[in-house]
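Hey, can you fold this one?
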Amino acid sequence: MVTVLDTIANAPRLRHPEKAHKPDQEVLRKPDWIRVKAPVSKGYAETREIVKSHKLVTVCEEAGCPNIGECWEKKHATFMIMGEICTRACAFCNVATGIPTALDPDEPARVAHAVKQMGLSHVVITSVDRDDLADGGAQHFADVIRAIRAATPSTTIEILTPDFLRKDGALEIVVAAKPDVFNHNLETVPSNYLKVRPGARYFHSIRLLQRVKELDPSIFTKSGIMVGLGEERNEILQLMDDLRTANVDFMTIGQYLQPSKKHHPVIRFVTPEEFKSFETIGRTKGFLLVASSPLTRSSHHAGDDFARLRAAREVQLQKSV
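Sure. Predicted structure:
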């Protein structure tokens, strides 16, 4: 039987999915509200040096995040563990696809040292998908969490994980390490999964988030989507309901930006007014927090958002007394 890993093993390393769109496909012009300044600050350079000196990978660079200048100027970075090669080939993502390297046992300590050197009060840890590993990298996530706790006990930790599809017991390993926030992104509405996120399963991701709450209700749960991929408004509202059914606390919504002509095209640029309406609707549906704007990304302003999450939970608890 040919497996996903067999297919990956016979494929070259790619900077884009095999399911490429035509190179001559028209690329929509970015509106003014999506434009950002190039990173040139002293703080940006200092953050870059810390990342490089610790031989670490960041999703800020690998995914071409538009907020890298703003975040790195403030010495905020999202560390991407377990290498820079992913076993999935999502049509929206700029991370390389191919055969991953072996896990680095020293990486947790290096991440923890970088977090301490940068003086981070809140840190976000994400990873590539590692379908090649028996536990999908769950133990490595747990090792990183515990290393940060040992180095800087006051730092709050947010993780953005893969879906651990067909990895029995993996989620339990990560939850036992007690991150403060467990984030797993749905990325898009279910009707887009076959063309945008073909290696994933929508309802598995919903169940993953629900299971986190069942295992440890004290952990905040979070998920995010991109818009502009051809989804309908009513599909977004249904997705919100699905997340609330899973007791997800926090939702992020941001504009999809096409990394290259070979990736899924931007079908349209959603206006700031529409993003604001999604935020309002999400709050009425019961999320503790909704971040919705063209430049919203999973880890953008994560530290400030965590403080807002805690405050919102306190208000909720007081109302329930």
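The mean pLDDT is 85. Let me know if you want another pass with a different chain boundary.
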